[in-house]
């Protein structure tokens, strides 16, 4: 019996020591305690120097994780395995997160820098009153093109993509809403249209584009366009800015029929365990100097009006990425279509891709 007791005590002591070591390791890496902040963001979507600065100024240890799609982000937060304190979903994902009760309301009294956000980008349909979200970056969907390779086509209209001179010379971003939206906009319909005859009409028109489409691709679209592997690409404006930085021959335009106005936003997920620190971080990112530095690093358009005044004229005055009020009127935010209609959109997009062979 004494030997059994000794064995039990030894095992218990060893387990206790291991637990202590594990706790120390977690603490040393910032995964425990109340002085941490876990951020969930798109890849390469913040200046790392700002994370260091936030840690130095606040003493809060930042744990930074990335996702590559809104769907992946939603799944991770729904599962609840990680306590994300701040996340950066797009506008249609926020609608879904609100429906599923995955967000914590923001305390605006803890966000004094909120006054720096341009009022045009506040109180939008996906989050009226900005109860759950604050704009982080914004932009458009449009066309990157190489004027030297497209024989005088100006792309003022989406219909220019159907020009037979562009055979096998167009790259499309692999996005259901973006490609279907292009098809719908080219017909004068809303990119949130759910009318079945309109959707079928858009699919039929997209299939007519097939001879001109070289490929439907993901992130590699940036490298391929910069390397002139195709003359034209359907892309997000932030990607366009990056591509044009690599190849100065390229230009970007949003066709006159209109397009998507998108927003990525800062939210506090229901998984958050450090809500106070989350508010501090959001307010930090809303500081004009911080937002301006982040904008220059990322290359996307800032909704921070005060930060815009601090940016060089070649950035803040570039109407391709900061369009005038007239164009903004023709842009639409993606609505949450609901699971059934989104699945239908995906099915139509798949039918289009199958037509490419």
TrEMBL record:
<dbReference type="InterPro" id="IPR006059">
    <property type="entry name" value="SBP"/>
</dbReference>
<keyword id="KW-0732">Signal</keyword>
<protein>
    <submittedName>
        <fullName>PotD/PotF family extracellular solute-binding protein</fullName>
    </submittedName>
</protein>
<dbReference type="InterPro" id="IPR001188">
    <property type="entry name" value="Sperm_putr-bd"/>
</dbReference>
<keyword id="KW-0574">Periplasm</keyword>
<dbReference type="Pfam" id="PF13416">
    <property type="entry name" value="SBP_bac_8"/>
</dbReference>
<keyword id="KW-0813">Transport</keyword>
């Amino acid at each position: 019996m004494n030997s059994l007791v000794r064995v039990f005590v030894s095992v218990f002591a060893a387990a206790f020591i291991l637990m202590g070591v594990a706790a120390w390791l977690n603490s040393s890496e910032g995964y425990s305690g109340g002085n941490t902040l876990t951020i969930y963001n798109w890849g390469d979507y913040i200046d790392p120097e700002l994370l260091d600065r936030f840690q130095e100024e606040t003493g809060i240890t930042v744990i930074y994780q990335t996702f590559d799609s809104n769907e992946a982000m939603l799944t991770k937060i729904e599962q609840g395995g990680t306590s994300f304190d701040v996340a950066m979903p797009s506008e249609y994902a926020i609608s879904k997160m609100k429906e599923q009760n995955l967000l914590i309301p923001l305390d605006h009294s803890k966000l004094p820098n909120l006054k720096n956000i341009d009022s045009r980008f506040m109180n939008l349909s996906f989050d009226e009153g900005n109860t759950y979200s604050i704009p982080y970056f914004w932009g458009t969907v449009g066309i990157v093109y190489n004027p030297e390779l497209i024989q005088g086509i100006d792309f003022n209209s989406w219909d220019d993509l159907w020009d037979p001179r562009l055979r096998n010379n167009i790259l499309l971003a692999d996005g259901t809403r973006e490609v279907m939206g292009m098809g719908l906009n080219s017909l004068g319909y809303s990119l949130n249209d759910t009318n079945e005859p309109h959707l079928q009409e858009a699919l039929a028109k997209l299939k007519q584009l097939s001879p001109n489409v070289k490929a439907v691709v993901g992130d590699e679209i940036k490298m391929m366009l910069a390397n002139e592997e195709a003359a034209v690409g359907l892309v997000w404006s932030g990607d366009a800015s990056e591509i044009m930085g690599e190849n100065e021959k390229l230009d970007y335009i949003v066709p006159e029929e209109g397009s998507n106005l998108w927003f990525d936003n800062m939210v506090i997920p229901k998984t958050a365990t450090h809500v106070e620190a989350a508010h501090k971080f959001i307010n930090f990112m809303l500081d004009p100097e911080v937002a301006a530095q982040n904008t220059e690093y990322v290359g996307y358009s800032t909704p921070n009006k005060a930060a815009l005044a601090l940016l060089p004229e070649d950035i803040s005055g570039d109407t391709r990425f900061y369009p005038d009020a007239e164009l903004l009127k023709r842009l639409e935010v993606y609505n949450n279509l609901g699971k059934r209609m989104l699945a239908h959109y995906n099915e139509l997009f798949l039918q289009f891709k199958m037509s490419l062979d």
